Amino acid sequence: MSPDSGEHWTEPGAWPVADGVHRIPLPLPQDGLRAVNVYAVESEAGLTLVDGGWSIVEARELLERSLASIGYAFADVRRFLVTHVHRDHYTLAHVIGREVGAEVSLGIGDKPTLDLMHATEPPFTGSSDLLRAAGATELADRWGRPSASPTLDLAHWGYPDRWLEGDHDITLGSRTLAAVETPGHTQGHVVFADHGGGLLFAGDHVLPTITPSIGFEPVPVEQPLRDFMGSLAKVRAMPDLRLLPAHGPVAPSVHARVDELLAHHEERLAACLRALVGAAPAGLTSYDVAGVLPWTRHEHALADLDLFNAGLATMETKAHLELLVARGDAARSVVDGAVVFTAAG
Predict the structure, then answer these.
(1) What is the CATH classification number for the domain harbouring 296?
(2) Quick one: which of 145, 146, 242, 293 is 20 to 30 A from 66 by CA?
């Protein structure tokens, strides 16, 4: 339930969350997240949308109806502030932005992902290589099949009009949003803080009921979990704000949820280290360790997850193991192309 609507947070509508701000949930068919929240922000400078949704017919039609219910049309949108490059946030913003001339902004850290998409023919499908390096050969074989790697429509993945670089203020009439770089979920992730209104448009950085995936980007990152936890600490050092997440209900305190997320990842780090300590001297791959950890709040086994979520789980485990190496608690080596981890000492 979301307090702004009194309904389940995925219920369609344009729900008022603050003066001049409406939350619009858009559908994500065939996605366990079910919906993504797009936020419509009114100002003297026109309408700004934080995130845009996934460029599918159902989402586009619902966004159009939801905006109409509060007196707006696509032509009234002046800009999109996109928190990160994932399809459920970026693609509909890009398509509508091109149609109506609205400026689309995206964090500069996501440029390598778009560069890779546009530099390869056919478009990049190299996640199989990442999974093989994590020891997940069986997942990699399945991931590489055409049915598991649909062709990307690059018309939905053009470059933004503006790259967001560094922490800076964005003026929307009398409203000011602070763009804050928060790498982790993706390297270009940005949150937008409305300190005057006491709001944080958090994208996928801080989610109220789940933790975002870490470590599964087309362009590999050395320490994605370290980046994510550092970004959480950065947001924790800001004044506490009301949480406006991309997935899930509005929540009263960013600080409270950040504390829970940091504690969760420390617990997962400890669980990964226990798996290494109890392993044979030859060590374990990320896939091996993921196989002994529980997943989701229902504590499913890795084998019970679908292909996509098993891949996310494997790469998130690798991110935890790499951070243990950086902390000096584990060591890594490469055996037959796969990264193998052992407990230090």
Answers:
(1) 1.10.10.10
(2) 242
